[in-house]
Specification:
Largest sheet: 8 strands, mixed
Helix content: 40-55%
Order of helices and strands: EHEHEEHEHEHEHEHHHHHHHH
CATH architecture of the largest domain: 3-Layer(aba) Sandwich
Number of helices: 14
Strand order of the largest sheet: 3-2-1-4-5-6-7-8
Shape: globular
CATH topology of the largest domain: Rossmann fold
CATH superfamily of the largest domain: NAD(P)-binding Rossmann-like Domain
Length: about 325
């Protein structure tokens, strides 16, 4: 099967390299960088992202938009900030017969998920979502990995299963594409919060006190934005929230650690820490009404912090965990 991967960054390179383990797949990676194109084609490396890793010999790389026309399956592995510009370059070459697999995570200011945006711009309903607990470096190291596939028809499911044959990527499945997309955004917000908690308290008791509240708020938000409850318990939900919140490879957790230790100023002009969680907090918070905001004290606390001049993240346990009178 001909597979075209848009994105030569860490995740695009890692997923391409693993897909190449299936000898029935012909993988082409798209990169805007002529240097990366030449390096992958001639040296089978991408040292900008994986300094000491040799890539599969069968991998090819291109900077030509038109090369996407020969693909059966298109994987999108881009930062959300690049989606609009890059898809605009490709859209004239993409047809409805091609299956599009969205790996990118994010939400736009108008509340659209990336799949919503792709459906609208490409006039294409043949789009699925693939998300889950997965660090690119571990995929490159061939760690067994579970991802959630959100799909609409059985043919899409068959195609995705086929392309991942003989790889170490495994799938759980749902037809709740909306939930898969929303959970991939929400988990970054709460991973940031758990980073703050771990930095301030370094206590398993306190960490899991907050984790319990985190899953309560995620359940509420997932329902509010149209996701199914069962999706929370798949790899894209429970798995991804736990990994992103508790592992130091997570950029959002790392940001939370910096905040908790007092090393981060959200209003600094010199701030170069740009992560999905920060960009998502205002969007998600502003899309819900005041009554629901009051049911989400952790989200509300993060929103207040990033919209104030405070450099200190304070936690009032009575306020956050106050028991309602019976």
């Amino acid at each position: 099967m001909n597979i075209f991967v848009i994105g030569s960054g860490t995740f695009g390179t890692a997923i391409s390299n693993e897909l190449a383990r299936n000898t029935d797949n012909n993988i082409t990676i798209y990169s805007r960088s002529v240097e990366i194109v030449n390096e992958i084609n001639s040296e089978k490396t991408n040292k900008k992202y994986f300094a000491n890793t040799k890539l599969a010999d069968s991998l090819k790389c291109t900077s030509e938009f038109i090369d996407i026309k020969s693909a059966d399956v298109i994987f999108i592995a881009l930062p959300s900030s690049a989606i609009i510009e890059v898809i605009d370059d490709f859209k004239q070459y993409i047809s409805s017969s091609q299956l599009i697999v969205n790996l990118s995570k994010g939400i736009f200011k108008n509340g659209q998920t990336i799949v919503d945006y792709l459906n609208e711009v490409l006039k294409n309903k043949n789009i699925v979502s693939l998300k889950g607990p997965s660090f690119a470096v571990e995929i490159m190291q061939r760690a067994n990995t579970l991802l959630t596939l959100g799909y609409t028809d059985v043919n899409q499911l068959k195609i995705v299963k086929t392309v991942f044959d003989n790889t170490r990527i495994y799938l759980d499945i749902t037809q709740d594409i909306r939930g898969v997309e929303i959970l991939s955004v929400i988990k970054n917000i709460y991973a940031l919060l758990i980073g703050v908690v771990d930095a301030k308290y370094n206590s398993p008791n306190t960490r899991f006190m907050f984790m319990t509240k985190v899953f309560s708020e995620i359940r509420i938000l997932n329902k509010e934005f149209g996701g199914d409850l069962d999706t929370v318990f798949l790899a894209c939900g429970l798995g991804d929230v736990s990994m992103t919140s508790l592992n130091d490879l997570s950029r959002n957790r790392t940001l939370g650690l910096l905040i908790g230790k007092g090393f981060y100023n959200p209003n600094s002009n010199d701030n170069t820490v740009i992560v999905e969680g920060v960009n998502s907090i205002n969007i998600i918070f502003n899309m819900i009404d005041a009554s629901l905001q009051n049911q989400l004290p952790l989200l509300k606390k993060l929103h207040e912090f990033f919209n104030s001049n405070s450099k200190k993240f304070s936690i009032n346990f009575k306020e956050l965990f106050l028991q309602k009178e019976l």
